[in-house]
Amino acid sequence: MACVGPSPLSSQPVDEWVRRQRSDMLNRLTSYPSGLPSFDVAISNENFPFVVTARQTCSSGHGVVKLKNIPFSTRRTEVIAFLGRNSRILNDADEPVHIIMERVTSKTQDAYVEFQTMDDAISAVERHEQYVSKGKTPRLGDRPVQLELSSQAALMKDLFPVATGIVWNGNEARMDPPKPTQTFGWFKGFISEEEMIMLVKHVEVPNRSPYAKDCPQRPFECLISTLKKLPWSQHEYITVGQRNAIHQATVDLIRHLWYMIRDGRDEVNLNRQLLRRVVTAAMTCPGFSTLQKDNIAYLMGMDELEERSYGQPRFASSWLHLLALGPKPGIPLDVIEWYIAVIREETCRRVSMLPMQERSEMENTARETDGYFGFLWLELREYRHFGPSFDNMTLKHVADQELHVIEKILRRALVSPQGYLRH
Known about the structure:
Elements: H1 16-21, H2 24-29, H3 39-43, E1 50-52, E2 63-68, H4 76-83, E3 97-101, E4 108-115, H5 118-133, E5 139-140, E6 143-144, E7 146-149, H6 152-159, E8 166-169, E9 172-175, H7 193-204, H8 210-214, H9 218-229, H10 240-262, H11 272-283, H12 290-299, H13 304-309, E10 325-327, H14 333-352, H15 356-366, H16 376-381, H17 388-391, H18 395-413
Antiparallel strand pairs: 1-10, 2-4, 2-7, 3-4, 5-6, 8-9
């Protein structure tokens, strides 16, 4: 593996014409006499360009109402129309409507709708009660529907029914204390692999899923709710295997939906608008890695500009060794690539110092993988052992490993051979 291109670790001053093409942030970062920042500057929150993607979510204070006794074939647009145009529900991009579907049986249950504030949710319920007090019966289709004030906790409990051993506090989970022999007590996950497999099966074999057959859009809407509401920020309770099962189901469902639209299977329920909603939920999912999102972008034939709109970096397909870290939003692309170049050059330098036989073995192995991050994979390998044990590793554990390794590399790279900081 060769380290090519201008060296980010060079002590030579940068030509002015090069600086004019760089972002202000990169110019500040490399404005020191040596052309390099100190380790402390490089690792500071202000400059460090990598972030734990799963942590890019926050607690929700949105108000929630619940619609009970809805017809199993209820459509999202019908729910929105039922609440009225003046209802201050969340924007469409935030996916405010969650029609609960049993992932194993595909049976539709109740529906929840998120409002901008709790007061907005209360107002919607009060309007409903005033309507009922006049002797009128609100209906969806041919069914009388009940509307009541609900909560994020109730929504999460119905959306993730297999998450036992927890109590929902808003949209965050409080775990039972773990037993000595168990990692998460009797909590096994927010969602099961079987649920994700069945979600795909309802689409692949609709004749065996009567509810899904009569309401073909429901599995896709269930996936959207899953991606949007899963508490990714609690990544200490989500394993690599669970995340991969959700991603695989997402890829499968996007592929199936694309073919259904192409074949004109159901232009009313299975249309490009639904596909766009699913893809957007996947590309903005904080739990998916940069590479996983790139796989979805490739599947959809996205161009570079469209990928950028979802916060993807350049050369996203080369981020295959970072499973929990991604580019920090708002950081210029050239800053991200400068850090990657530092990692690449420093890891290549370290391998070049190995004994000949060991170095040859590492270089032969490197030919089978991507060299964009240099030998980052080699230093991560000291902490990773792929197999069932890795699948059971939490996303938080993976993120901690990646941050630790990158910190070690930067510390080496930004210290001179004599052992003092480069400036």
